[in-house]
């Protein structure tokens, strides 16, 4: 696969601190229309994450990007990423290795979503999480303000051992509530992954699909050897690093599907 992923800058985004669930982080906001909370992937609000945020703004959403880790606008590098991973592994608000766990960061994200819902049009808000934060989007959907959740390559808890690999990334009580809302039609979700991605394991997706049923749409992109899209076996970031727009590839199409899904749910 040739070319590079779309990028954007932090310019034009309005920064404001937000406190919720006993935590305070800066949030970056832009756009108008129904609300979408975009939770950045490791190492933070990179130019690629900002390109996704701008894509959502262009699709008619008010987008809020919390910044719980990393330096907003800073490009990813190996050293920068490893430093963030090291911090996140021991941070109590994320509980990166815990199974059946309620994570303090998700209370914060639910508060962000509820606040955004209170001041934007639509039937509720959407939440998009990626990689380390992929599952946090689903856990945020425990809150009634969230009607659409997107979990792109959800990777927490880190897949060390079979139990963590299959864990849904939330506590049993949260999973029960999410399944209850999904069964009632109050929330729908999309999960995205590459077929060979061990971080966002197929077993985790099976766990989620078994409980959420038709309310959980799975988009799996082929990254097996010789795949027609030219994706490397190590392909991971469906909505950011792997997107190509000239010509459009399957990750580009997946990104468009996410925007369409959010429009459908938030205008219902």
UniProtKB/TrEMBL annotation:
Pfam families: DLH (PF01738). Keywords: Hydrolase. Residues 32-152 form the Dienelactone hydrolase domain. The keyword Hydrolase applies. One of its GO terms (molecular function) is hydrolase activity. InterPro entries: AB_hydrolase_fold, Dienelactn_hydro, Dienelactone_hydrolase-like. PANTHER family: CARBOXYMETHYLENEBUTENOLIDASE, CARBOXYMETHYLENEBUTENOLIDASE-RELATED. This is Dienelactone hydrolase.
